[in-house]
Amino acid sequence: MVPALDARDVCLSFGPVHALKRLTLTAEEGRITALLGPNGAGKTSFIRCCTGLARPDSGSLTLFGEAPGSPAVLARIGLMPQATGAWSGVRAGELLRYLASLYADPHPVDDLIALLGIGPFEKTPYRRLSGGQQQAVNLAGAIVGRPGLVFLDEPTAGLDPRARRLTWDVVRGLRAAGVAVLLTTHDMTEAAELADRVHIVDMGEVRVSGTASELTVDGSLEDAYLRYTTGDAR
Ligand SMILES: Nc1ncnc2c1ncn2[C@@H]1O[C@H](COP(=O)(O)OP(=O)(O)OP(=O)(O)O)[C@@H](O)[C@H]1O
């Protein structure tokens, strides 16, 4: 079966900075795939390549067997970015209804608003929302189109414990519905809780991959992270 996401030897440079160096991984439907790695390791750059926002210099990258950014692919993916300043003035509910209108068979927006607790701030302009409230709207925006593959870039960064658990439940629900989830996080507990497969990335390449159990044979996931990453600036 063709994986939802198939990346082989993906390279991306910004001048002298090698953001991605032969990065290779797959993400399957009905699985949560976690990318761990230091600040600057290349995680967001990889997601930008997958979503058509950046073009790899070399390597092979396909989503559902097709090129990133193609209309067929864009209709089947969702993205929760780290920040979306572009949505500044629009009210949360309006934004979600607009995003829903772009898809043939969206989730009912009222259901998503209830699921993610957005109701109390549905009429608040996006720029006035708290960080955690923005995250909830961003997550709703990522899944409103019923994607088959969703990219969640640090979805729980800065969330309070209850909001974090709610997000975890939503992510598990996506997996149960057969969605391929690619998640980046700096939260080792989150990766251990959620991920079916973990890739530890450093300096643009995958250093080690495995299930959380496989990677924690000799210690915690944080131990594995520290063993396989340098934290060196490029
Ligand atoms: N548009 C750009 N122009 C120049 N350099 C860039 C650009 N985008 C990313 N980089 C560089 O590429 C490297 C990888 O950055 P990236 O944002 O992918 O890291 P990350 O793993 O997502 O980090 P974090 O965990 O801090 O979010 C960094 O050295 C960054 O400075």
TrEMBL record:
GO molecular function: ATP binding; ATP hydrolysis activity
Pfam family, any one: ABC_tran
InterPro entries: AAA+_ATPase, ABC_transporter-like_ATP-bd, ABC_transporter-like_CS, ABC_transporter_ATP-binding, P-loop_NTPase
Keyword Transport found: yes
Location(s), subcellular: Cell membrane
Classification via PROSITE patterns: ABC_TRANSPORTER_1 (PS00211), ABC_TRANSPORTER_2 (PS50893)
ABC transporter domain residues: 5-228
Membrane topology: Peripheral membrane protein
Domain of life of the organism encoding this protein: Bacteria
Listed PANTHER family: ABC TRANSPORTER ATP-BINDING PROTEIN (PTHR42711:SF16)
The protein's name: ABC-2 type transport system ATP-binding protein
Species of provenance: Tessaracoccus bendigoensis DSM 12906
